[in-house]
Write a structure and sequence with these properties.
single chain, 86% helix
């Protein structure tokens, strides 16, 4: 149902990245104070909320929902992006950190390349951005549940235990 002008899309990208910028600035500091898992869950919650607002923006053609969704999504995305290296070290230790971060970066790049293609394909098939955004929002639901199950204390013990070389 949404029919936004191209200028709105351009402004939206700016708002998304501005939210990401501030999320990146604050997440590292806040994670050191309140814990990485909490900030990960807050970041995922913000992205999930942003996804829901974006679905509302598509369905209702609501500028308020659009801007709110982009700010929330961007802020959460930026915050989580900052935590990737910290969480990888916390969860897996230092022994194979380079290999693990390489795998994460490859998957991140593949997702970044496939995301616009799949989004465009779903739009072409359905005639709306609601479906691809609903898929993203659903994936965020799964990610939030999975992140809530992380056992950071156990991971820290395993990561610090001697490993055979």
């Amino acid at each position: 149902k949404a029919d936004y002008a191209p200028q709105v899309a351009a402004t939206g990208v700016s708002i998304l990245f501005l939210g990401g910028f501030f999320g990146k600035l604050l997440a590292g500091y806040i994670a050191e104070t309140f814990g990485r898992k909490l900030i990960l869950l807050i970041g995922l919650g913000l992205m999930l909320s942003g996804g829901i607002f974006l679905l509302l923006a598509i369905e209702l053609t609501s500028a308020v929902s659009l801007w709110t969704g982009l700010v929330f999504f961007g802020f959460g995305w930026g915050g989580i992006y900052t935590l990737i290296q910290l969480l990888a070290a916390d969860l897996f230790g230092m022994i194979a950190l380079g290999k693990i971060l390489a795998a994460i970066n490859i998957l991140d790049a593949a997702g970044g390349a496939a995301g616009p293609f799949v989004t465009g394909l779903l739009f072409d098939v359905t005639g709306t951005y609601f479906v691809p955004f609903a898929v993203i929002t659903g994936a965020l639901c799964i990610a939030t549940v999975a992140a809530s199950l992380l056992d950071m204390q156990r991971a820290a013990i395993v990561a610090q235990s001697p490993q055979p070389v």
